[in-house]
Amino acid sequence: MSKDSVVVKNLHKSYGKVKVLKGINFQVPKGSILALLGPNGAGKTTTVRILSTLLAADDGSATIEGFDVTAEADKVRNVIGLTGQAAAVDELLTGRENLVMMGRLYRLTKTSANARADELLQQFDLVDAADRSAKTYSGGMRRRLDLAVSLIAVPPVIFLDEPTTGLDPRSRQGMWNIIEGLVASGTTILLTTQYLEEADQLADSIVVIDDGKVIAEGTANELKSKIGKDRLVLSFASTQTFIQATRALGTMVYKSDDKEMTLSILINDTNSDVKRALDILAKAKVKITSMAINKPTLDDVFLSLTGKKKTTTGEEE
Amino acid sequence: MAAQLEFEHKSRATLAVQDSLIMIGRSSRHILRNIDQLLGAFFQPIMFLVLFSAVFGGAISLALPPGVTYLNFLMAGIIVQTVAFGSTTTAIAICNDLKKGIVDRFRSLPMNNMAVLNGHVISDLFRNTISTVVMIVAGLIIGFRPKANVIEWLMIVGILLLFTFSFSWLMAIVGVIAKSVEAVQWLTFIIIFPLTFASTAFVPAEGMPKYLQVFAENQPITIVIEAIRALILGSPLGNYAWLSVMWCFIILIIAVPTSIWLFRRKVMQ
Q1: How far is A220 from B94, CA to CA, in rounded Å?
Q2: Do A28 and A93 belong to one domain?
Q3: Same domain, A94 and A144
Q4: Can you tell me the distance from the alpha carbon of B228 to that of B217, in angstroms, rounded to the nearest whole number?
Q5: Any chain A CB within 8 A of the CB of B109?
Q6: Of these four, A174, B3, B109, B124, which has the most CB atoms within 10 Å of its CB?
């Protein structure tokens, strides 16, 4: 068996005339975590659906732990766990019943399913809610149960389709801790996200997809180094000074944010570029509230790769 | 990992049966926990029974054979009607599962996928049995006097179970096709309402217009009603029993593969 748990080759998928995937390639090394990063409609969910045997690809192939997703779908299902976008738990069953039922459907013996359910309820902080029906759970609890369900038979590969979309910051942090714990225990994880911060925080490697194609891949640092330059970020106290500064700096502005009232300027040579920007603002008599020199973020990577702004609102597909 | 996990090592067929049993357990829990639906299954048949017998009893008893009370005549019709409407629960449950994404989860597991449909259809048998028993008890209280002996009762139970089973599979098709629970409700209504009313459920067919009479006397719901009615009243059974069984099998032969095929097609999108 190869060192890659997931191998995706040239996946194509169309719905009618709409081409959703136009040749996706990537590998996930065993025990690592790969983030599929892209905006809404990029094809992330479609890719995960194909890899988890829910959907047939039109062309191309994919293997999970060496099993082909089309020809050996049954074997693939034994080695994967899937957590989708909508927390797919049975609302009328209790947390424990959900876990035991899914465990039994994974072919665990009754004893094992029960023991494992107890273990997961502990691990995911759901012991108190274990015997309440899942419809009484909060969003974060439901998402934890959903993830716990996909781990019931300890599959070596886990697909997490936007695991933190719609969660509050605290629940999101909790989910991140859990995911980091999983990787530490040797699980291979394929995660989709539209949050650049999430990919940056969790993933060993990132595959950026847009419009059904892979447009970049590498570690977070590699991607950042692709645009490489540091940025000078200037903040302003009022809309008026912000507009004045925008006019004065003209084409030097790389990115402007009118809500935060900040302007970013790419720096090639730290001394001269910073000095030049500050000179221009001093001459125009525009007061700066604060300034900072930042490393590029994945947002910038995306902007420079696709030439368009990524949208972080709304639901996928 | 605290404990070493043990997996079942059974034949494919045994595991498929086990999957269906697990899903029957799931759907049955749904029935017991969905209190609103359970109350409906309890009170709706009683309401139908009491209202129909009170409202139509006087007028229709004149058209009945001598010695047959309207309540004794009505019982077969109202049981079959209740069971037919009750089978729409299968459609609603399947539609809900498809909408909420839990079917995707099931499909990502190494389970037998048809177990989802099996679970809903078979647990519907339980719910319909509850409705039927409630109705018969309520009937007995207000004057229902069946003449069936033990063997005839077993035949009644057998035909009713087979009918519920086949009708639930028919409704499974609706559950897969419909895009929302609302759609399930009106779709099943426009299928079941004409079938149960243009039948001999509530009145003998003699008084209907000729074209309707021909339909009403030969359609499957009437056949099933007439078989059960004959068994209840102790009147000649004729061909109705085996015709009922035949109709149920015809429905099953069409509905089971169709719903499975539609289900597969829908979830692969």
Answers
A1: 43
A2: yes
A3: yes
A4: 15
A5: yes
A6: B124
Please state, in angstroms and rounded to a whole number, the distance separating the CA atoms of residues B104 and A84. Answer: 8
Paired residues of A291 in beta bridges = A234
Distance CA B212, CA A15 (A): 46
Domain contains B2: no
Average pLDDT over residues B217-238: 93
Checking if the pLDDT of B196 tops 70, the result is yes
Distance CA B195, CA B216 (A): 8
Please write down the HEC assignment for all residues of chain B.
Answer: CCCCCCECCCCHHHHHHHHHHHHHHHHHHHHHHCHHHHHHHHHHHHHHHHHHHHHHHHHHHHHCCCCCCHHHHHHHHHHHHHHHHHCHHHHHHHHHHHHHCHHHHHHCCCCCCCHHHHHHHHHHHHHHHHHHHHHHHHHHHHCCCCCCCHHHHHHHHHHHHHHHHHHHHHHHHHHHHCCCHHHHHHHHHHHHHHHHHCCCCCCCHHHCCHHHHHHHHHCHHHHHHHHHHHHHHCCCCCCHHHHHHHHHHHHHHHHHHHHHHHHHHHHCC
Instruction: Give the residue from B5, B34, B264 with the most A CB atoms within 10 Å of its CB, the best one to mutate.
Output: B5
CB A41 within 8 A of CB A317: yes
Tokens of B144: 């229902």
Give ipTM to 2 decimals. Answer: 0.87
A105/B22 Cβ within 8 A: yes
Query: Over the stretch A169-213, which tens digit does the pLDDT of each residue have?
Result: 888 888 898 899 888 888 999 999 988 888 888 999 999 998 899
Give the tens place of pLDDT for each residue, A4-63: 999 999 999 998 889 999 999 999 999 999 999 988 888 999 999 999 999 999 999 999
Last residue of a domain, one of A208, A225, A242: A225
Q: What is the pLDDT of residue A158?
A: 94
Q: Does B13 touch chain A (CB under 8 A)?
A: no
B35 φ/ψ angles, rounded to the nearest 5 degrees: -60, -40
Contact A54 B30 (CB under 8 A): no
- Residues in CB range of A155: below 8 A, 6 or more apart: A78, A79, A80, A81, A187
Q: What does the block give as tokens for B211? A: 């074209």
How far, in Å, CA of A264 to CA of A230, rounded? 10
pLDDT bin (cut points 50, 70, 90) of residue A136 is very high
In terms of domains, do A215 and A136 share one? Answer: yes
Give the phi and the psi of residue B259 in degrees, each rounded to 5.
-65, -40
For residue A158, give both structure tokens: 């886990």
Which residues from A are below 8 Å from B93, CB to CB?
none
* DSSP one-letter string for A211-249: TTEEEEEE-HHHHHHHH--EEEEEE-SSHHHHHHHHHHH
Q: Whole domain around residue B48: which residue ranges?
A: 12-267
Instruction: Give A265's strand partners.
Output: A232, A253
Of B6, B108, B111, the CB nearest to A53: B108
* Each residue's pLDDT tens digit, A206-215: 999 988 999 8
Q: Cβ distance A91 to A136 under 8 Å?
A: no
Nearest-CA distance A279 → chain B (Å): 58
